[in-house]
Amino acid sequence: MLFTLAAFFLVLAPVSFDQARASSAVIVAPSISDEPDPFDVNPRPSAEAPYARQAILTEGPATVSVAGLSIPPKAAKELKLSQKALAQGDTRVSIDHLERALKIYPNIPFAHNSLGVRYTHLGDFDRALSEFRLASAADPKSAQVLHNLGTAYYLLGRFSEAEVALRAALRLDASRLVSIYLLGNSLAMQGRYTPEAGQLLRKCSDTFPSARLMLAKILVGQGYPQDAAAELREYLKAPDADQKEDAARMLAKLEVVTPNHGPSEY
Questions:
Q1: Looking at the 3D structure of the chain, how many domains does it have?
Q2: Does one domain contain both 22 and 103?
Q3: Of 224, 229, 176, whose CA–CA distance to 203 is shortest?
Q4: Radius of gyration of the chain from Cα atoms?
């Protein structure tokens, strides 16, 4: 069974090759929109809680902390070819060119980040994790790379490690709703149905409706069925909610149960 919340998205911020080279930003094919682009992956959920199927990776621009980074012409050419291949929809060829660029000049953190995103798109989460680790080691002050690292851990079911990376990302950029969303789910997947987990999910629920579905499950587990029902009603109003049948069945059951055991902490 696939994850039980919303669809996974890969968010790519387009930037031209020349702009990327000048600013040390990640190179992204211009045909890739910065709007969510759905893709699907299916690691097994644990028995304790559903996966969130709305993990998000971002691919640029990634800040390179080492000032004055210069890329040799041959490596720059491979990066440009990688961009071209991605624009043509050939992810594997794009990967080949990125790997050649890194073989020529290994110190390109944004290329490691791009490779991680490409491998994630192909469902190769172990290799994606390796690339995000390299990118993060070279550029530890990039909230974007740390978020991607946390996402890779999450997709591999390594939720405590995902939590560490996502908290680090949020220390650098506290307003990243995608990281807030995934951190809330990471806590829930560890069985930590805490006020913090609920608050994180509620904070991002307007942007990510599936946060309400996870929050409802947490509230039921904590003995707040009416609060859970309220979250499900809000979820069902979302036009892009893709688990409406499940949510409706859950809501129907909750509408005949006893009231909350006092006010929730969320």
A1: 2
A2: yes
A3: 176
A4: 20
Is the confidence at residue 8, as pLDDT, over 60?
no
Same domain, 61 and 184: yes
For the stretch 155-195, pLDDT in tens is 999 999 999 999 999 999 999 999 999 999 999 999 898 88
Contact 115, 95 (CB under 8 A): yes
Angle at 226 between CA 222 and CA 228, to 5 degrees: 60
Q: Which domain holds residue 214?
A: 205-266
Asked whether residue 223 falls in the same domain as residue 163, the answer is no
Sorted by sequence, the CB contacts under 8 Å of residue 28 that are 6+ apart come out as 12, 13, 14, 15, 20, 59, 60, 83, 86, 114
Q: Tell me: do 147 and 48 sit in the same domain.
A: yes
Which residue among 192, 216, 242 closes a domain? 192
pLDDT at 4 over 90: no
Residue 252 one-letter amino acid: A
CB atoms within 10 A of CB 265: 11
